[in-house]
Write a structure and sequence with these properties.
Blueprint lengths: L2 H6 L24 H17 L6 H24 L4 H27 L7 H8 L1 H4 L4 H12 L33 H8 L3 H16 L1 E2 L2 E2 L5 H26 L3 H26 L20 H8 L2 E2 L4 H6 L6 H6 L8 H15 L5 E2 L2 H16 L14
Parallel strand pairs: 3-4
Antiparallel strand pairs: 1-2
Helix pairs in contact: 2-15, 3-4, 4-5, 4-11, 11-16
């Protein structure tokens, strides 16, 4: 994302559903020096090593492994599984493999980082449609809102999970939120079915993603959305129903698949942004701008974790290197480990934070601590949100 794009995105007033007293033009402060230095040093690395920023043949090979994982699990579920433990093991495998499609293939494709050929990246992005989502809606929710304004309360739709979860201090408070650190792990299971059956349609018909008005898909984009849904519903639901027929056992298998899939996706995001060391910002008041520069905002609101775990890095598509991803979303995730030392060095030179949780355990502890703190209710240091119930 260029500094120009990040500083001007959302500047057209009709795009926003602006809260009273808040600016309808969201701009960043800062002089952009840190952002320029980061871009310069990382560009020098790619030039020095003679590397492209996309994934090249390595990304194609990884994608082949992931697609084979999904296909093999699917065929085994339909043709070989007979015992309860078969279905349990294969349901877990299916949930993990579908999450891996999103982490690696779709995510890089949606950011244009999969290949230097645009049509190849678009094909990779369509992987989301093929597993039930919408690459069109994801672009507006994730690329435009989340990446431009991470952890800006009421703007970043990824942290707007009210009333079920209270992830920021400006969300309405409900007494049940004091237990969200316990029940959230069950709600995460609903992330994928909600997204497949509800969220894409709701955003299309309401023309909203969080605080932003989303242009409804038209023409080819609308056809692609419905074609993707039809494809996903066919292989995910219709074919298994034809093979096995409806039953409570099948419902249990779907429940396990969705829980593993949703838990993997939701937890990865939460560990990177919703924890006790990442900062949260507020929608600026009229006449004000976001106090930090764009790069400073990414660094203050984003946390890496388990950087030394190569297996986890492979599975998560490098999203445990969330800082590198937010600063360089158009760089393929295969390059994140290599450029992380450069990013950390530049941050140190500028006195900017480079937030890292050393292990998955510590990252989980930090996320649970955040859920407890925010779920405890309004305090004197918070804005006064509405209290429900």
């Amino acid at each position: 994302m260029s500094s120009r794009a990040s500083s001007t995105a959302g500047s057209t007033a009709p795009t926003w559903l602006t809260p009273p007293g808040c600016s309808d033009v969201l701009k960043y402060g800062g002089d952009g020096t840190l952002h320029r230095d980061l871009n310069k040093r990382v560009s020098e690395y790619f030039k020095r090593e003679g590397l492209r920023r996309d994934g090249g043949w390595r990304m194609i090979a990884k994608s082949a492994v992931i697609v084979s994982w999904v296909a093999t699990t699917y065929v085994l579920l339909l043709t070989v599984a007979t015992e309860a433990w078969h279905f349990i093991a294969l349901a877990i495998s299916m949930g993990l493999s579908l999450a891996c499609v999103g982490f690696s293939i779709q995510h890089d494709g949606g950011h244009g980082a999969y290949s230097n050929r645009r049509w190849v990246s678009k094909l990779a992005a369509f992987a989301l449609d093929a597993i039930g989502g919408s690459s069109y809606m994801w672009h507006h929710k994730h690329n435009v809102l989340h990446h431009t304004y991470p952890n800006i309360e009421q703007v970043d739709d990824d942290i707007s999970q009210s009333p079920w979860l209270r992830l920021s201090t400006t969300d309405a408070y409900h007494p049940a939120h004091r237990y969200q650190h316990v029940y959230s792990w069950l709600l995460y299971a609903l992330v994928t079915p909600k997204w497949i059956f509800v969220d894409d349609y709701r955003r299309m018909f309401t023309q909203r993603a969080g605080a932003r008005r989303v242009p409804p898909p038209r023409g080819k984009e609308l056809a692609k959305l419905f074609a993707g849904k039809a494809l996903a519903y066919s292989w995910m639901f219709i074919t298994p129903l034809v093979v096995f027929g409806p039953s409570l056992a099948m419902l249990a298998v779907y429940g396990l698949i969705f829980w593993v899939w949703g838990l993997s996706l939701a937890t990865t995001f939460q560990l990177a942004h919703c924890n006790d060391i990442a900062e949260f910002g507020s929608w600026p008041r009229v006449g004000e701008s976001i106090p930090m520069g764009w790069a400073e905002q990414q660094l203050a609101t984003t946390v890496n974790f388990s950087q030394d775990n190569r297996a986890l890095t492979w599975f998560l598509g490098g999203l445990n290197y969330q800082i590198e991803h937010h600063l360089f979303p158009k760089v393929c995730h295969l390059h994140y480990p290599a450029i992380s030392s450069i990013v950390a060095e530049v941050c140190a030179e500028h006195g900017a934070p480079y937030l890292v949780q050393p292990s998955m355990f510590e990252a989980l502890r930090s996320h649970i601590a955040h859920l407890k703190r925010v779920g405890a209710g309004p305090s004197a240091t918070e804005a006064a949100p509405a209290v429900v119930g």
